[in-house]
């Protein structure tokens, strides 16, 4: 390790109700409650729609009932990271309740599910099953008032028919993905959706019921209120953060790819932009990664800045681009020309794996927030996972490995410390989970989930006016 320097970054803080701050999402929610919605109300009543067969709807209602009264951890020991789910209702620390009216339930008949077994072609069976769910979503969402969010509780017999014991959200044919199609059906009805598989309802999932309750509550709250349960405190003002990635379009030329940008403002507000189809170019090291031409890069970055300006009524002072692949010369020139009026710019490659490992002289792994700086400092190795002093735990298995942070050699206006602090902050902004953090920042970490949905032919045919920009439709 000769020539290496090791630094440590303090844990970013989050903002909750009343402007109060905490470093742990769950502790902040329990102590202060989530950030209030824009109407200023102190308690959120989430209108929940339920779709499934008689068993899956009943099992889902049992879970929601358990969440109402609270769920304790298994065993006797309650570590700080193993907090009980507090329960819901008027006096709940989470300041939320569920409203489940019978008119928001759509039951798929057993005869309809049984009829699927007579269809031999897998693609036809999936389409028929999606038609049943589509009919129920449209019916539930056409009520007055309509639900804030619709939970699709996958019937057990349907899951067994399609997955042969795998998770229900892995139902996939050559041309479509089951989960993605359900997400799109929700978008077309202007209602976010949540999928729950039978293994989760039976308690056979890897997550204990208490963890399911925590994550479900946070996700439903975010989707229902169309707003964030917590915000960040430590990002630079008037900065536009964009995570750029690519996906294969299904049902078209297999070499056709499109670009996607997930744009975040310093408040944590975010939206999704889809770019034009691009050409897949093999890189110098034969990784086969996709890169943008100068013209495509310029158009994409101009769209990003225009959408940012629409929301802020101003252009940003700083632009930060996160990407999982290196910046090619053409891409760099296009991004630069499309953002030439932005005063400061940082183009950063973020990769998930590196073989380097650090070991402490204690029984614990490296602290989250540890940064290893090699000689030359062309890239840094940041531990977004590791021992977390705030919860006195390393709640993972195996030895943690850092992510690679590689600033562009020319377009890099900010210190390594500020860049890594921002990445640490963005690792705490996945509102589909109440976990302390994720390994990757959301600017690149949620790319797969969004890409799977946009890859669907149905999504490709959506006109711009009907295209859903908000992340809560995708999660």
UniProtKB/TrEMBL annotation:
Record protein name field:
Piwi domain-containing protein
Which species does the entry assign this protein to? Halogeometricum pallidum JCM 14848
Which SUPFAM superfamilies does UniProt cross-reference here?
A: Ribonuclease H-like (SSF53098)
Span of domain Piwi: 149-459
Top-level taxon of origin: Archaea
Q: Name one GO molecular function term.
A: nucleic acid binding
Entry-linked InterPro entries? Piwi, RNaseH-like_sf, RNaseH_sf
Q: Which Gene3D superfamilies match?
A: Ribonuclease H-like superfamily/Ribonuclease H
Can you tell me which residues the record assigns to a coiled coil? none
């Amino acid at each position: 390790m000769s020539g290496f320097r090791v630094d440590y970054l303090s844990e970013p803080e989050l903002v909750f109700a009343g402007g109060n701050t905490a470093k742990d999402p769950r502790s902040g929610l329990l102590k202060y409650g989530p950030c209030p919605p824009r109407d200023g109300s102190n308690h959120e009543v989430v209108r929940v729609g339920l779709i499934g067969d008689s068993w899956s709807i009943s099992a889902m209602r049992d879970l929601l009932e358990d969440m109402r009264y609270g769920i304790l951890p298994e065993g006797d020991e309650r570590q700080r990271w193993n907090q009980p789910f507090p329960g819901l209702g008027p006096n709940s620390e989470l300041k939320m309740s569920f409203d489940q009216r019978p008119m928001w339930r759509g039951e798929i008949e057993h005869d309809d599910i049984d009829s699927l077994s007579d269809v031999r072609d897998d693609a036809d069976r999936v389409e028929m099953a999606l038609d049943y769910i589509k009919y129920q979503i449209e019916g539930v969402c056409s009520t007055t008032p309509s639900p804030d969010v619709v939970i699709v509780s996958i019937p057990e017999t349907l899951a067994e028919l399609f997955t042969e014991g795998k998770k229900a959200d892995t139902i996939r044919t050559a041309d479509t993905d089951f989960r993605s199609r359900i997400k799109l059906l929700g978008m077309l009805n202007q209602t976010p959706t949540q999928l729950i598989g039978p293994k989760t309802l039976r308690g056979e999932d890897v997550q204990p019921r208490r963890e399911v309750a925590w994550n479900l509550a946070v996700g439903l709250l975010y989707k229902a209120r169309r707003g964030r349960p917590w915000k960040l405190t430590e990002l630079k003002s008037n900065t536009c953060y964009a995570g750029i990635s690519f996906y294969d379009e299904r049902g078209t030329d297999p070499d056709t790819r499109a670009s996607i940008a997930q744009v975040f403002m310093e408040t944590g507000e975010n939206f999704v932009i889809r770019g034009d189809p691009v050409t897949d170019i093999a890189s110098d090291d034969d990784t086969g990664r996709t890169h943008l031409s100068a013209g495509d890069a310029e158009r994409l970055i101009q769209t990003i800045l225009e959408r940012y300006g629409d929301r802020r009524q101003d252009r940003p002072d700083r632009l930060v681009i996160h990407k999982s692949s290196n910046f090619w010369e053409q891409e760099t020139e296009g991004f630069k020309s499309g953002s030439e009026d932005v005063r400061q710019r940082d183009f950063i490659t973020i990769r998930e794996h590196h073989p380097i490992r650090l070991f402490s002289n204690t029984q614990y792994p490296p602290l989250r927030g540890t940064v290893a700086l090699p000689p030359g400092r062309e890239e840094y190795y940041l531990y977004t996972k590791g021992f977390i002093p705030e919860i006195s735990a390393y709640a993972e298995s195996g030895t943690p490995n850092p992510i690679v942070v590689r600033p562009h050699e020319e377009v890099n206006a900010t210190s390594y410390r500020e860049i890594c602090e921002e990445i640490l902050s963005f690792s705490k902004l996945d509102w589909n989970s109440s976990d302390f953090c994720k390994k990757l920042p959301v600017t690149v970490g949620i790319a797969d989930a969004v890409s799977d949905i946009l890859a669907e032919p149905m999504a490709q045919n959506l006109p711009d006016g009907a295209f859903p920009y908000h992340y809560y439709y995708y999660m």
